[in-house]
Amino acid sequence: MERGHKDMPMSHDADAPPGASRIAIVIVTYNSADVLEGCLGSIVDGARGVELTNVVVADNASKDESIKIAETTVGLPVSTVQVGRNAGYAAAVNAGVASLDLAGLDAVFVINPDCRLRPGTLDVLAASLRQPGRGIAVPRLVNPDGSLQPSLRRMPTVWRAVAEAVIGGSLAGRIGTLGELVTDPEQYEMAGVATWATGAAMLISVSAIREIGNWDESFLLYSEETEYALRAADHGWTLWYEPTAVVEHIGGDSGTNPTLASLLIVNKVRLFRQRRSRPAAAAYYAAVVLGESARALAGRQTSKASVAALVRPSRRITSLEPGRPGTE
To answer: Among 42, 128, 162, 291, which lies 20 to 30 A Cα-Cα from 209?
Structure first.
């Protein structure tokens, strides 16, 4: 693993009042040159009111200009950590956090490179974490057009999997607490505790990081944030949603890329199996297969790939690097 840095100031705290939260940022990149500059450009305003000590770009062996963009950024305390291979989101997060001196920090903000912070976002999230028992704080995510991007989730259960299989996740999420994905816009107007949330942007207290430990790198992509949030809850830490902190998230292509879609579904089932009894896991698996099969019969390519990966372990992704076993 390689590390690099420029001769830059150790903190960016011109606007930080005395006693401001000390925050570091970890940005995970992989061929992110087209979005990274915009992310970095939003940090100065996004970090108003906090003492920003580090901005670490943890790179999963990008082939584009991602590292160059990071290393030529001015006005921010940017450093780079090169993972050396496309090891996945969790591995890059772990590498980025490992490069930090946690003793001098209050929290670490983990973020995707396709995110843009609105002014004062980190200060609002940091204030949320000052309440006892809160270990993770997440913002309101919006699409580039400003519309809401549903990001909150309820606890995965067999009955929620059945409901989503029968009527779809979007509709199930609007009917009380029937679905795992919270899709009712009114729910996003209120701050409160959530079971887990999209991992594109989350502030994690150093106290929680020390107790929870590393992110689970075996998930590669998808469900790693679920596993981390549920493990945090196991240790007594809550995840707090704060709608007045806003982050624009361009979003990935798991909804259109069959390979990534299958990884998302397989990891979802695998995580449930890790945490629940064998009978419950079998029922959950059956419900997910049922739902994806119905959509596959309707012609959805992502669901066809998901069904193949669910019923044929040899079709599952075990590496994100092209040319290695488990990739397409």
So the answer is: 42
